[in-house]
Amino acid sequence: MEASSNLNALLRKNPDDVVITMAIRSPLCKAKKGGFRDMRSDELLTEMFKQAINHSGIDPEVIEDICVGTVLPKGPTYEARTAALTAGIPESVPIQTLNRFCSSGLMAVTTIANEIRAGQIDVGLAVGVESMSWNPDVGPEGASDDIKACGPANDALQPMGWTSENVAHEFNVSREDMDDFAAKSFQRAEAADKAGYFAKEIVPFTSYLKDPATGVRKKVTVSKDDGIRYGTTKTTLLKIKSAFPQWLPAHTTGGNASQITDGAAAVLLMTRRKAMELRLRILAKYANAAVTGLAPRIMGIGPTIAIPKVLAKVGLSKNDVDLFEINEAFASMCVYCVRKLELDPEKVNVNGGAIAFGHPLGATGARQIVTGLNELERRRGKVLVTSMCMGTGMGAAAVLLGEFE
Predict the structure, then answer these.
(1) Is 389 a catalytic residue?
(2) What is the pTM for the complete model shown?
(3) Known catalytic residue at 102
(4) Model confidence at 271, in pLDDT bands (50, 70, 90)?
(5) Residue among 389, 376, 328 at smallest CA distance from 184
(6) Is 169 a catalytic site residue?
């Protein structure tokens, strides 16, 4: 397909471009059961920082700011700062944390990109991380009577499973549609795993697992995702009982929703000028991002608003996009988003998604960039769009342009 004039303009290289020179992730491991189950959240983050330093190709003193996207820790900035120092990042490198639910990893990337674009820094590190083993998601801790009396505000406090059922009901997404989508996610992830595609984006992590007999933790190396269920079919998924029978149409199950998972990802960004000075390989150019709000009761449809918004900002159409990475929070929302935006299913989550290998809340936004760029390079594509919905009724999306120099 011939590139549009707007795409050609975006692909032009300028010294002030914000570029990505490293995009790596941990394996994704089942919470409470997988390879990181006995690892503290600050230990997981420390290991991510160590791996980022090892794979960055730069002295960490060059980093001028770090942004960590994470959702569940009670003291996130304490964890981030102490983990960075423990990993060997100098005291002179500042750090910040942010929480915009499922987009936190993407927002960390966007925050660093905006700082670079504004001229505040030349080099920054974005990290997304979540240990759902160490910090289980317990939901909101309550609300005032005034908030409970406000319909949309009260909706924003409700469980995410309820919002999945609302999307399925309101937009006529059937159980068969959802299980068909979920089966494809597992099958694509299995095929990509067997082909070794993920090995190019995953960096092996040192973890600590307790000996069941002694309770003593021992070091182990974790190098593969452990949530992919080989041999999954629509037929097997249709046999799983509803996870939320109290909410109609009760189509959401443990087989067609994202897995509860531990994991992390890291993205190094800088100006093109700095990357050339440091002689670093450029993977992609950061184009732009967009966020939006919407009715909390159908929060899953966020990508249907955020994706057109970000494409309009950069002057592209969906036909210019080679790959979409849309977070599979629930199959109901993914089925609807693909249908509503009239996307080519062969361009969406081509190596599976969160249904197949998990959704560590703060990590997913960065993880999707890592996975998307890895596959974009394999296909020699040009345009990646990554997107997700977020609890309380929001959506986010970003456009990245592959270079792979």
Answers:
(1) yes
(2) 0.97
(3) yes
(4) very high
(5) 328
(6) no
pLDDT, tens digit (0-9, with 9 covering 90-100), for 217-270: 999 999 999 999 999 999 999 999 999 999 999 999 999 999 999 999 999 999
Q: Which of 102, 251, 334, 337 is catalytic?
A: 102
Task: Considering the candidates 29, 251, 337, 359, report the single residue annotated as catalytic.
Answer: 359
Tokens describing residue 56: 């960055």
- Between the alpha carbon of residue 272 and those of residues 106, 277, 385, the distances in Å are 20, 9, 21
404 dihedral zone (left: phi>0; alpha: psi -120 to 50; beta) = left
CA distance 102 to 364: 7
Q: 3: buried, middle or exposed (CB in 10 Å: 19+, 13-18, 0-12)?
A: middle
Q: Which of 29, 334, 337, 389 is catalytic?
A: 389
The DSSP code sequence of 136-150 is ---------HHHHHS
pLDDT tens string 236-248: 999 999 999 999 9
DSSP 236-266: HHHTSPBS-TTSTT---BTTSBPPPEEEEEE
> Can you tell me the mean pLDDT for 101-128?
98
> Cβ(269)–Cβ(28) under 8 Å?
no
